Amino acid sequence: MSQSGVSKQLDRDEKLYRIRHSTAHVMAEAVLREFPDAKIAIGPPIENGFYYDFDLPRSLTPEDLERVEEHMREIINEDHAFERAVISREEARRRFADQPYKLELIEDIGSEEDVSLYTQNTFTDLCRGPHVESTKQLNAKAFKLLSIAGAYWRGDEKQKMLQRIYGTAWETPKELRQHLDHLAEVEKRDHRRLGRELDLFSTHEEAGSGLIYWHPNGSRVRLAIEDYWRAEHLDNGYELLYTPHVGKSWLWETSGHLEFYNENMYSPMVLDNAEYYAKPMNCPFHIMIYKTQTRSYRDLPLRWGELGTVYRYERSGVLHGLLRVRGFTQDDAHIFCSPDQIEAEIREVLRFSLQVWKDFGFSDIKAYLATQPEKSVGEDADWERAVGSLIKAIDAEGLPYEVEEGGGAFYGPKIDLKIQDALGREWQMTTIQFDFNLPERFGMTFVDRDGKEKRPYMVHRALLGSLERFFGVLIEHYGGAFPVWLAPVQAVVVPVAPAFNEYAEQVKSELRAAGLRAEADLSDARMNAKIRAAQQRKVPYMLIVGENERNGHAVAPRLRTGEKEDAVAVEQFITRVQRCVSEKALI
RNA sequence: GCCAGGAUAGCUCAGAGGCAGAGCAGCUCACUCGUAAUGAGCAGGUCGUGGGUUCGAUUCCCACUCCUGGCUCCA
Predict the structure, then answer these.
(1) Is A188 (CB) below 7 Å from strand B?
(2) Shortest CA distance to A121 belongs to which of A26, A39, A23?
(3) Measured CA angle at A91 (ends A85, A93), to 5 deg
(4) pLDDT of residue A67
(5) Positions of strand B less than 7 angstroms from a protein CB
(6) Residue A414 DSSP symbol
(7) Closest nucleotide to the alpha carbon of A152, via C1'
(8) What would the CATH number be for the domain defined by A194-245+279-478?
(9) Do residues A175 and A139 lie in contact, with contact meaning Cβ atoms separated by under 8 Å?
């Protein structure tokens, strides 16, 4: 983007910020018309819109929103100026005497400062601004109230629950339209909807919430992902492990999970007077394997990966399809190395991650670096060294990144990678975490050149995150139309009439013999219906076969994009798809 | 967990204090058909679970379970 392009973008962001903030104020005024006794809390602009929290005598209904919108349009069209005033804290306290939430906010403002107010029409809010100059700068046709939600005062569940109204606001009705279309597209791509429509997975409340059942189609995709994952890891210097699903309390006491992670763990099972816990993480198991031998510096680095299934208790309210579950398979790995290897190792992990993301069709990636929090274990010097190597690695890979000061776990700094999907949404997937804690707790050592026992560095790394969550993101990214190498069914052979069933079956067998995932639709539906069915399943290739194709040992491909191709020999088609698979082409 | 909304056929959804509905999917039958739905017929439900009101509840009331949207954006 050019320099002026950048500043234009900033201007626009600033403009939208004011519009949204001001629209929130107009909404508050409108709500006060409906509920004169309403207590108002906060109402900031947010991405794509705004919200305002209210303490109301009764619950809002969708009809209330319509009336509030109506009032808002009136206020906007009446063209009221937004007027700023600066008053003393004393005066502000008097002014908002019947607004307890505002009084609390006033107390939070530095005692030296005066406070500013913004007034439009009958409504005055404690507010830092800025705002548009007048309500006529808002467009009565470019905003919409979207939803009602509960929200704790200050996001604290010990505080009172308020009612939040979310809205969206734009400069023009066209932009609003585009945003609403975008929301509709998000809904259409919802992995839960596509999961059902494409017969990929299910969940069963009666059998346990937050636990995923992979159907044959979903499992086909997962197998493709796992096969790729294993092959890439073996090619990139990893060894693969399998470890148990449960471990005795000794393990979790030693690791510290019982002390620090208890509320996320499933309750123990008692066997032979011992308590066994379903694992919430794989790391202690990998450490057990590490400790089966005296490790030499010559053995390091050790890169050990595992598709490890873990169970974590998540509160029922936060469960969400594949994206937030109670049982999932992490594509985990632990790297054990000497301090002088750490920088190269981190860089290698990053490089490897980016390559994998590219193969799955994601290239917009941002790094988030989380540094030492107030409470932490490990020497400050180790933290510094670790953070330094993280930054060097990020720079070396040329990734854009942001620093989250103090955002690391107590046991070490980390890099998270967020990927952007086809709809521009960011998802946190990859995490690369230092651990100064576990090597200590388990007394891990390696023998260095000088014959002395030293503590290895340990890095946890989940690349895709979890297969469940990754699958959810993958479904939404592709809207269910997976690239050929991942598609559950790569080709459906469609005979134009029953007379060609036998040939269709033969073609299917040939495709399968060539390693492709193929089906022949021999149902008694008509050809058009078969095409439609395959199209709705988002199968990449439909192969139409009739008299001509049978005579020429050929197929006439139709792509799911609707494109029709001339007939080609079966062998030729196979070669083409195999290339497409090996190149992981995004078609 | 908390707030709000929801739960009716496999799916999407309509309905109403008095025999439970549609479309799609499924099953059966017929059909010689060239690039997004051939036609006819059949079957399918303890109306989320438990309790209450009522002559009668899937419908009204209460509780519970689960699902959905939020509970991160800080005047």
Answers:
(1) no
(2) A26
(3) 115
(4) 86
(5) 1-5, 11-12, 29-38, 65-75
(6) E
(7) B71
(8) 3.30.930.10
(9) no
Task: Give CATH for domain A3-178.
Answer: 3.30.980.10
pLDDT value at position A158?
79
pLDDT at A1: 44
Q: What is the structure's pLDDT at A10? A: 67
Q: What is the pLDDT of residue A333?
A: 97
Spanning CA of A520 to C1' of B67, the rounded length in angstroms is 37
Stated in angstroms, how far is A51 CA from B3 C1'? 16
Instruction: Please say whether the dihedral angle defined by the alpha carbons of residues A390, A468, A475 and A191, taken in this order, is positive or negative.
Output: negative
Architecture of the structural domain at A491-582: 3-Layer(aba) Sandwich (3.40)
Task: Return the closest-CA partner of residue A539 out of A519, A514, A555.
Answer: A519
Q: List, for chain A, all residue ranges whose pLDDT scores fall below the cut of 70.
A: 1-8, 10, 110-112
pLDDT at A571: 97
* pLDDT attached to residue A6: 60
**Sequence ranges of the domains in chain A:** 3-178, 194-245+279-478, 491-582
Range 154-183, chain A: CB under 7 Å to any strand B atom: 154-157, 161, 163-164
Identity of the residue numbered A322: L
How far is Cα A202 from Cα A382, in angstroms, rounded to an integer? 45
Q: Which nucleotide is nearest to A126 (CA to C1')?
A: B75
Measured CA to CA, the distance from residue A190 to residue A321 in angstroms comes to: 9
User: Which residues, at least 6 apart from A196, have a Cβ–Cβ distance to it below 8 Å?
Assistant: A202
Q: What is the pLDDT of residue A319?
A: 83
- Alpha-carbon gap, residue A484 to A478, rounded angstroms: 11
- H helices of A52-131, in order, are 62-77, 89-95, 100-108
Query: Strand B: which residues 468-497 of A lie within 7 A (CB)?
Result: 496-497
pLDDT at A583: 95
Q: Which nucleotide's C1' atom has the smallest distance to the CA of A497? A: B33
Q: Give the total residue count for chain A.
A: 587
Which one, of A226, A274, A272, A224, lies nearest residue A253 by Cα?
A274
Rg (CA), chain A: 29
